[in-house]
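Hi there, hope your week has been kind to you so far. Would you mind checking whether the tokens look sensible for this chain? I owe you a coffee for this, so here goes:
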Amino acid sequence: KQRGGSAMASAPASGEEGSSTTPLIPAIAAFSTCGALAMGFGAGYGTRTFYSSEAYKDLIEKFPEQPTAEMEAMARRTGFRALAAGTGLATLMGVGAVLT
């Protein structure tokens, strides 16, 4: 008598041992897609709402002239610094969550 003969007979013919499909990858893809769609919808809806708001009309009334190149450079620099600081903070929070 051979031991484990029935276990060998039930093993898959391709040589894989008990591989099972997991819904992890499709779930990640689905949630990522839903998140991207939600962010896109929110950005579009927010932009459309802002351009039809009283705040936009007041802004145009108070500042009718175009910004100078120096003002645009300062705004770009400030925006980049804010993005870098937020990204760094999120990274540190992620590392802290993994380490604890």
In short: The chain has a mean pLDDT of 85. The first helix runs from residue 5 to 10. Residues 17 and 39 are 41 Å apart (CA to CA). The two ends are 53 Å apart (CA to CA).
